[in-house]
Amino acid sequence: MPARNPSAAKDRTPARQSRETTITSRENHWLKVFRAALQSSHQEDSRVGLEGTRLVAEAVRSGLAIEAILASTTAERVLASLLAELDRPTLVLRTTDKLFESVAGTETPQGIAALVKPRQFAFDDLLHGIPLVVVLAGVQDPGNVGTILRSADALGASGAIAARGTAHPLAPKAMRASAGSALRLPIVSGVAIPVALTQLRVSGVKIVAATSSSNPAALLPDALDFRAPVALVIGNEGGGLPPEVERSSDALVRIPLAEPVDSLNAAVAASLLLYEAARQRRGRK
Fold first, then answer.
1. Residue 41: is its pLDDT beyond 80?
2. Residues 124, 50: contact at Cβ < 8 Å?
3. Which pTM value belongs to this model?
4. Is 225 exposed, middle or buried (CB count within 10 Å of its CB: 0-12, 13-18, 19+)?
5. Disulfide: which of 106, 152, 179, 218 matches 252 by Cβ 3.0-4.6 Å?
6. From the CB of residue 259, how many other CB atoms can be counted at a distance below 10 Å?
7. What's the start-to-end Cα distance of the chain, in Å?
8. Does domain 123-281 have CATH number 3.90.78.10?
9. Dist CA 272 CA 278 (whole Å)
């Protein structure tokens, strides 16, 4: 986070104008809203629940519109630090540790959460520079989804597509696994996989599908040119990619494995392939 003048942060008017209220009832409307946002596996595209110091701080740092911040008694110091960084007023809700625990989605809550409005991205937002797009085709574990997004963000991907049938990238578990990357990386979700691949191909992006290590038609990662515009397609944890997706791809890629192992976790496989793409794009041989 860029260095700031402490006195200037304290004098920032929008933070002082934030509305504040104390919640003492479990039946409070806002507690119900936070409970749904932090505990549900389903996610609204218009509102995201974030829990924990790291994610809430990332939302503030990224300049996202924050609808409300909920803080427990033990998080007062964290709350004060976050309010000093806010550049616009928001609703600040204080409550007890016990009531916060009743809405938290984690086993050891840190006492701080926020409701934010995520950025909305269009397909063209994924294609900046020389595109490297990760396409999640039926990745159902939100932890895997979040981990893939974190690797994509760290290794220079231009964006991601969470195709229909994939766990929502902004769901609480996916968000925590992404460590904030899901807030930064351009992501388009809910599109049918045939539509996504057609749009990518029309845009001049090569479709590379990750397949099992035993597929003889697949190339090794270093045999592919990841320096060109590429979309890397990652399939379901158990079933992999549908046969029609593999057939329609421009190339197949496999990670060689030692026997008797015949497959890797989807997030591990995606991360290894993204690393190879980053290695090639840095110009290393």
1. no
2. no
3. 0.88
4. exposed
5. 218
6. 6
7. 34
8. no
9. 10
Distance of CA 148 to the CA centre of its chain: 8
Contact 53, 78 (CB under 8 A): yes
Question: In the structure encoding, which two tokens stand for residue 175, read together?
Answer: 């968000």
- The token pair at 18 is 């934030």
| Per-domain residue ranges of the chain | 6-117, 123-281
Q: Strands, DSSP E only, in the chain?
A: 19-22, 48-51, 65-72, 91-95, 112-117, 132-136, 159-162, 187-189, 206-210, 230-234, 251-253
Query: pLDDT over 70 for what percent of the chain?
Result: 92
- Count CB-CB contacts under 10 A for residue 195: 13
Q: Identify the H or E element spanning 155.
A: none
Strands (E), 175-237: 187-189, 206-210, 230-234
Provide CB contacts within 8 A for 128, sequence distance 6+: 158, 159, 186
Cis amide bond preceding 260, omega within 30: yes
Q: Cβ–Cβ contacts within 10 Å for residue 176, how many?
A: 20
Q: Which tens digits make up the pLDDT trace of 100-110? A: 999 999 999 99
pLDDT of residue 212: 84
Q: Is the pLDDT of residue 11 over 60?
A: no
Please tell me the predicted confidence (pLDDT) of residue 18: 78
Does the structure show a pLDDT above 70 at 252? yes
Q: Please say whether the beta carbons of 31 and 55 come within 8 A.
A: no
Reply yes or no on domain 6-117 having CATH 3.30.1330.30.
yes
- Report the range of poorest mean pLDDT among 105-109, 130-134, 258-262: 258-262
Taking every pair of Cα atoms in the chain, the longest distance, rounded to a whole number of angstroms, is: 64
Measuring CA to CA, which residue among 39, 47, 99, 105 is closest to residue 75?
Answer: 99
